[in-house]
Amino acid sequence: MSRRTVTATRVAAGDATGPSPERVLPAWLRRELETVPAFEVFATADELAESSARIAARHPDVVRLRRIGTSGQGEQLCCLTIAPPDRFAPDALVVGLPHPNEPIGGLTALHLARRLAEDAGLRARLGHRWHIVTCIDPDGLRLNEGWLKGPFTREHYARHFYRQAGPEQIEWSFPLDYKQAWFDAVLPETFALMRLIDEHRPALLASLHNSEVGGAYYYLSRPEPDLHPVLQALPLEMGIELDRGEPEAPWMPPLDEGIFPLLDVRDTYDHLEEIGALDAFSGGNSTGAYASRHGTLTVVSELPYWTHRDALDTTPSQIGYAEALDANATELHVLSDLLTEALARIGPHVRGESPFLRASRYYASAIAEQANAMQRRGASAAARARKATVAELTSMADTVHMFRLRYGGMLLRALDAEIAGGNVRPVIRAVHRELAALHAAWCSAAAGTSEVALPLRSLVAVQYGSVLAAAEHLSSSR
Fold first, then answer.
1. Do 27 and 93 fall into the same domain?
2. Is the dihedral of CA 137, 143, 145, 147 positive or negative?
3. For the segment 397-443, what is each residue's pLDDT rounded down to a tens digit?
């Protein structure tokens, strides 16, 4: 979930699109939002583990910390289990860091665990046995720790960014056996989640994600109309809009404003099969798709680091939607070709197979697929028949900025590692020098968009509120 987005209409105080948060959010939930402290920085893997252990030690009658598995590099994977109000209560599973560059959820999971451990009244209201994994990907988070303490600029983020190649992502490596698609390269972290899901058959799964630029949005595994208004009001309560940018899966109609069907790669397969593009399909399925066998309600909350007024502006521009798609696809093809050429130049000369290098190879190809998807959409009659909104133009342009910064920065990290390890061959140094100059220019261009970093407290509060709201909704529906 990674990217973002989808057209959403504002749920704003006093306007015609929806009631104000004051009228939608119950008083108890608004009070809970106030318990979220001011966060200045993100938590590291060690800090998340240490804080989880402290919560369990302080509340031994209520909280149990247990090991659920081992990461690919030998790190203990742990889960906090918090006692239910009665032994017949259903289970809820909360997962932080489903992607390693998405650390908002680590802070959210810790705050949730603290509040549940401290407040018997809250446990009774929500009516679940809780299993909280504050960090399912400590290995990947460690490779992002260079930016977790700030400064929170896009340049600093990009130069210390890491995200695995697709088949190495925990979120997207659940088993798949669908039509002609097969995936069984399950990661140890994924297997740990599979065991938790199958052991507890959770009524609720909260997967805590974040995007980069724009507004807030959600994925739900099924429509829950009574829950939708609360989810829509939570961001506005904290000064964050619903997202209005380009869709991640434009062929899937939204469930509601800012709320979309859970991403399941079986749907993606069907879509690609229908349009004759199955060669673009690969990988496994998601956590929520795996949990669906148990009738689980999965709530995925996506919060951005930065926002910009143009990313929220639904005013039609003077540029055709198809024209905008095609122009941005061209930019992405240029980027894909550039990264592919750089990788080909250094290929015979690299000494190791670092995770940065594997990921760089994967995304060089994935960027081209994203560009192809844009071009296919731009060729449709519906795309040619309308103008792009300002928000759509902004999010398309930001896709280019984001991919340049993320994946150019990650290839630079691969080259940094080669040079630090003593590989100073002329071609390694030349590609590093050329890419560093390009990346600096890309960072400067992205900085010129005047994006604003959102307060961490607000981001955590929205995620925290979405988990509480979903749990209370299920509890009151029983």
1. yes
2. negative
3. 999 999 999 999 999 999 999 999 999 999 999 999 999 999 999 99
